[in-house]
Specification:
This protein is an alpha/beta fold and 218 residues long. The protein is built from six helices and nine strands. The strands form two sheets. Strands 3-2-1-4-5-6-7 form a seven-stranded mixed beta sheet, sandwiched between helices. Strands 8-9 form a two-stranded antiparallel sheet. Helix 1 runs parallel beside helix 6. The protein is globular. The termini are far apart. Bound molecules: 5-O-phosphono-beta-D-ribofuranosylamine. 5-O-phosphono-beta-D-ribofuranosylamine (GRF) binds next to helix 1, strand 5 and helix 6.
Length: 218
């Protein structure tokens, strides 16, 4: 059997994206194994999910460190010790420093609940609603030094509906997050992602969607 990609997951919150990765590893759609889950938050639901799945997990509380670099060094040491080849940020609410980027060059992914480059940062579903966007969505991207700025791997689009609340829109987006994050990781595991400047090529290419979407429909 081919060697499985060793993933390290960083999560601060409930961990539904982590769960989707755990589940896809479990059913074999993702030829990867989660070697380590780290949370900066001792109360993170993500830690409970990892424990339940029998995955090694650690809480590394950022408040114990004097600065971001020292916190990152502690996480890098734990991830390297676990033999991690790809780091996935799954609702990880801390910015990562150059120390972390240098340890895993082009080997860190993030998921963001907006169609980047629109709405980077926080509270983005609310911002999409307030702006009056007709489509929202989510993005998996490689991580670089900026906030939600790295090369884009895959995006999913959802309509914004007239009666949407922040919660209903976030839930619609989250459903897609759980599909595209494992997909992006599988493409990495198959060594099919090539970063060329800002663009990520998939080798061999996959067929693009045939139709444009409009909201409201034509
Ligand atoms: C997701 O919306 C993700 O896109 C964002 O943080 C949220 C994490 O949710 N980065 P969960 O902890 O995976 O449920």
């Amino acid at each position: 059997m081919a060697k499985k990609l060793r993933i390290g997951a960083l999560a601060s919150g409930g961990g539904t994206n982590l769960q989707s990765i755990i589940d896809r590893c479990g059913d074999g759609t993702l030829s990867a194994e989660i070697a380590l889950v780290i949370s900066n938050n001792p109360d993170a639901g993500a830690l409970a999910r990892a424990e339940k799945a029998g995955i090694p997990c650690q809480c590394i509380d950022h408040r114990r460190f004097e600065n971001r670099e020292d916190f990152d060094r502690a996480m890098v040491a734990a991830l390297q010790e676990a033999g991690v080849e790809l780091v996935v940020l799954a609702g990880f609410m801390r910015l990562i420093s150059q120390v972390f980027l240098d340890a895993f060059p082009q080997r860190i992914m993030n998921i963001h609940p907006a169609l980047l480059p629109a709405f980077p940062g926080l509270h983005v579903q609310r911002k999409a609603l307030e702006y009056g966007a007709r489509f929202a969505g989510c993005t998996v991207h490689f991580v670089d030094t900026g906030v939600d700025t790295g090369p884009i791997i895959i995006q999913a689009v959802v309509p914004v509906l007239d009666d949407d609340s922040e919660k209903t829109l976030a839930d619609r987006i989250l459903t897609q997050e759980h599909l595209i994050y494992p997909r992006a990781i599988q493409l990495f595991a198959e060594n099919r992602l090539r970063i060329k400047g800002r663009r990520v090529r998939i080798e061999p290419p996959l067929d693009p969607p045939e139709q444009a979407m409009t909201n409201p429909p034509l």
